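REVIEWER CHECKLIST
Item 1: Sequence provided? yes
Item 2: Single chain? yes
Item 3: Sequence as submitted:
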Amino acid sequence: MKILVSGGGGLLAHCLRESAAAGRADDFIFPGHAEFDLTRLDLMGERLALLQPDVVINTAAYNLVDRCEIERDLSWSVNALGPETLAGLCAEKNVRLVHFGTDYVFDGVKKSPYAETDPTNPLNHYAAGKLFGEQAVLRASPNNLVLRTSWMFGWHPTQMKTFIHTVLKAARDGRALKSATDQISVPTFAPDLAQWTLALVRSGAGGLFHAVNDEGVSRFDWTKVILEEAVRAKLLSTAPPVEPVPGSFFNSAMRRPDYTVLGNEKLSKWLGHDPGSWRGGLRKMLARMK
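Item 4: Structure as written out by the authors:
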């Protein structure tokens, strides 16, 4: 199977590359942004015609969620129109498309884990664009696959601007740590997400899946766990205190839902096993950071 992975420089693409190297001998192609730009119909068409993949896994997205409220045209072109265009090209060439959605498509009202069948209601421009993109992908072909995920984290050889890096740097610098108690979701270990993706592709899965690890947690508790595990991994000598604050404290330009825990029962049934623990993933990431 020939698999093209867009967004080749990002965290998830890196994890797919590592999973591919350790797994079966599928033929993977990882074009960079200049070679496969979601805003360039002509360029994507040329690359698909030349490379003739069986599957495209689209990891490219505009993920600076607060800036999406400001750079609306750019974020919409990447998160909404780009996947729609790519889905059309893939349908024309009978290529399966895998795309990644976000927990932010929900408004947080439910207060219990969201299933794939629950109605969506995005509260911000980023989420609206991502919802448009995933709907376009699913509409283009029943063979296409959309995986909604949340709070993705993992080790990358050059990218060190994740939430985990931010928390550890603040702790080392002795800065006061504050974290929101009213933002609750599921941290998702990127290498796990990469493995689930390849397992679903190889088993012929299609449609919508929620792809997250084992349990919801507040941003405040997530921060405390990061610090505790960093001490355990000897990356910090002690865990500094974390002040609990409401999300409104940070004066974000973007309205965030307060509860977006995704239920992973459908994924578990398809895989035949539990998707595993984000805490275990965090420990693996911190071990590599040493």
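Item 5: Key structural point noted by reviewer: The chain has a mean pLDDT of 94.
Item 6: Recommendation: ____
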